[in-house]
Amino acid sequence: MCGIVGYIGTKPVKEILIDGLRELEYRGYDSAGIAVLQNHQFSLFKAVGKLINLEEKAQKFESTGFSVGIGHTRWATHGKPTELNAHPHVGSSSYVVHNGIIENYQELKSKLTAQGSHFISQTDTEVIVHLFEFHLKTASSPFEAFTKTLEELEGAYAILLVTASVNDTIFFAKQGSPMIVGRNQENETLFGSSDAALIGKCHEVIYLEDGHYGIATADKISLYDKNNNQVDLHFTPLSENKLSAQKDGHRFFMEKEIYEQGTVLADTLMGRLRDETVYFEELPPELFDGIHSIKLCACGTSYHAALVATYLLERHAKIQTSVEIASEFRYREPLLSPDTLFVVISQSGETADTLESLKMAKKAGLKTLVICNVDNSSMVRLADASILTRAGIEKGVASTKAFATQVSVLWMLSLHLASERKTLQENEIARQIKLLRTLPSVVVVDNSIHEQLRRLSKRYLHGHGFFFIGRDVFFPLALEGALKLKEISYLHAEGYPSGEMKHGPIALADPELFTIALLPQHKLYDKTKSNVEELSARDSTICSISPLDFDKADDHIRTHFHEDYMLEFFEMMVVLQLLSMEIAVRLGNDVDMPRNLAKSVTVE
Ligand code: M6R
Where do the domains of the chain lie, and which CATH numbers do they carry? Predict the structure, then answer.
């Protein structure tokens, strides 16, 4: 995902900025740029692709003496990965870099265009710099123009802005996207969207909080909070360990990836939600023409996301949907009909079985779509159409944020199709779009629940196995919970539809059998509850996850009340991810690189 760096000082600024951006490469990006301000003159370099391209563009540029610079790596969301859309974005004499999304950018853009601003990119970011320059005309100072700009922005942002009239200054702000400011003994001030960019360059940093904004020069940083009160600067020492910095203070990449699901889901939804419909700019309009059924195909966690989609697509879009495990599909000589849309789901876009299935479907003349996290992967290149999940690089072998983004894309796809096929009332689509907008906050980790899971994990380290059970979309979620636990704890776990227990599996019930029961308030609560009661009556140890009390539980994880089962789904997903991680930690396992597993399975 996008990365930001900033620098005020006397060292060669180009090298410092590009070096900082390189430390953020692990987040993924498709274009990059830097702007340097020296002696009231700007130098701007942008390039599509890797940082090496930016270095080539800026090859001849050298700076000596004092300068101010900002840099950015962009993962395309609004508009394609082109040089024009790459940051920094320019007004007439100011430059900005930005992470996040300006939700009211269309409205601001129309207003500013009417007032004479000339936009050259397709991004939401560009409104920031034009708005700043608009206020600069009447404000008593550039800082006042900056604060007036912030007052008008809605959405999430981390912003650095520089303007020619103040040669030694960076204006900064943070709301919903991370931003860190650091300093060192050489009187330099640096910024980064992750502390990874500042390691080795700063000895102490401030992790800005939401609503923080301010102004920085080489020898002074002034920081304000959301109520415009000046804030004391509380620096904390910066670690010198690059790997731990990439983990943003978390113990494992898996933990970091669980915690960043709110941010990545905001990226996944970005630009795709309209008031009454879901819009996928990347889908050719004729993709669904002549299509009467959908076949989903995937492996592992992506297969579980596909299973969730079977419920949503049939329920919302009233289109016949089936799902296949790719390794089975390949060899079972399936009957394929040209009115079926073949949809593969893959985090990596390289999984051998899924890729081969896609090739088979193409060969059979089916239209194909891939839902994938990696642009330019083999599947994205091969399929007729692709929707990127925008989860950023996922390092933990156990997939977490990739699953969250896949399910959210599939939910959106079901609504997109529902509005095309007119299978849901407009007000119902609008209601679900509102729910989708809340996803980034629904998946924010609740510290007290995480603490509870940390404590109760010690009771789940032995026994002869786990059953994860649920109904409807909570059945694939149960499968995913069981897979997460298996992968990193090496304990035996199975996911089951809760109604299936009495057809055999309940024979295993005894106190050493742990049942993790998903009891959402808004989907078949009573039915699931009686299945869990049957297990409890046979002495299985029950850990229930529900917003409602459940007196038959040995352990109860109380989730929040939500107005819809899909929001309960996403919160329970986080609980299951944390539960398996905490059990694996107690067992002393390598959470990020579990034994016998690889992140991308490129062999059969
Ligand atoms: O990259 P893909 O989504 O195609 O990978 C499929 C599976 O290998 C993957 O989801 C695997 O099951 C995960 N490690 C599960 O956490």
Answer: 3-246 (3.60.20.10), 254-441 (3.40.50.10490), 445-586 (3.40.50.10490)
